[in-house]
């Protein structure tokens, strides 16, 4: 190895360490200023935004705000990139990326999954409540979605929280030997045997709150995009780019 190459590698390591240290310093400054207002604020990460001197700050709960290097100025709202007539919401893009990762990392075995018999072309993750009228309407179209190659992955979101009747019903669904059958019965208003077990209903409910779910059904695409409310099967197929 030549002396020049050794020097270059050494310089790269020094610069890399310096940049990492600078990044930690910026995060520390911004965190300190935010926690001076509210000590419970949790800063997950701080990254440079495409705008010089502006940093994207991700808080717990996947909330993104923007700050200057010292954290003395805070901006709330979405950062948009204008390119002629094209507008790209950079904040939503970053937020969706984090959501997609959280959903991808969540174990399939904790969900109630309705899979196509043939080739799977796409999937949707649905936060659902068994007592929700539009959730029941969507469930009636699950066979149609499956026929089109779309997998439906249910996660529990009893809107009334832990004290609601839906919470207890959904625990029974998740504890049933045949979750798919139990889900269909519950969506049809039929009684489910009150089975008990260690179940992820509360965990999924809390995840839904973290992702900004405030109503059901709340549908998420694989890229993290949230679609609030009911959509007919044909519309969902179009959004997913799935041919009938």
TrEMBL record:
Signal peptide (UniProt feature, chain positions): 1-22
Pfam families: DsbC_N (PF10411), Thioredoxin_2 (PF13098)
Native source organism of the sequence: Zooshikella harenae
Name the UniProt record assigns to this protein: Thiol:disulfide interchange protein
Coiled coil: none
Location of the protein in the cell: Periplasm
Residue intervals of the Thioredoxin-like fold domain: 117-240
Gene3D superfamilies xref list: Disulphide bond isomerase, DsbC/G, N-terminal (3.10.450.70), Glutaredoxin (3.40.30.10)
SUPFAM superfamilies according to UniProt: DsbC/DsbG N-terminal domain-like (SSF54423), Thioredoxin-like (SSF52833)
Organism domain of life: Bacteria
Protein family: Belongs to the thioredoxin family. DsbC subfamily.
Record keywords: Disulfide bond, Periplasm, Redox-active center, Signal
Domain Disulphide bond isomerase DsbC/G N-terminal: 24-91
Function noted in UniProt: Required for disulfide bond formation in some periplasmic proteins. Acts by transferring its disulfide bond to other proteins and is reduced in the process.
């Amino acid at each position: 190895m030549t002396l020049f190459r050794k020097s270059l590698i050494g310089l790269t390591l020094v610069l890399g360490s310096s940049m990492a240290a600078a990044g930690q310093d910026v995060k520390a400054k911004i965190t300190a200023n935010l926690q001076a207002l509210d000590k419970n604020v949790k800063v997950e990460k701080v990254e440079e935004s495409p705008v010089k001197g502006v940093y994207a700050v991700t808080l717990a709960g996947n909330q993104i705000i923007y700050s200057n290097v010292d954290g003395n100025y805070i901006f709330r709202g979405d950062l948009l990139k204008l390119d002629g007539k094209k507008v790209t919401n950079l904040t939503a893009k970053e937020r969706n990326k984090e959501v997609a990762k959280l959903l991808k990392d969540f174990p399939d075995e904790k969900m109630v999954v309705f899979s196509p018999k043939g080739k799977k072309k796409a999937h949707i993750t649905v936060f659902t409540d068994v007592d929700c009228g539009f959730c029941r309407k969507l469930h009636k179209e699950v066979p149609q979605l499956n026929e089109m190659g779309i997998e439906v992955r249910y996660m529990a979101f009893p809107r009334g929280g832990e004290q609601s009747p839906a919470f207890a019903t959904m625990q029974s669904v998740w504890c049933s030997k045949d979750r798919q059958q139990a889900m269909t019965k519950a969506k049809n208003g039929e009684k489910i045997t009150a089975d008990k077990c260690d179940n992820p209903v509360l965990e999924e409910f809390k995840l839904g709150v973290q992702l900004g779910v405030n109503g059901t059904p709340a549908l998420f695409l694989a890229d993290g995009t949230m679609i609030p409310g009911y959509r007919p099967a044909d519309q969902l197929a179009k959004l997913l780019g799935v041919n009938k």
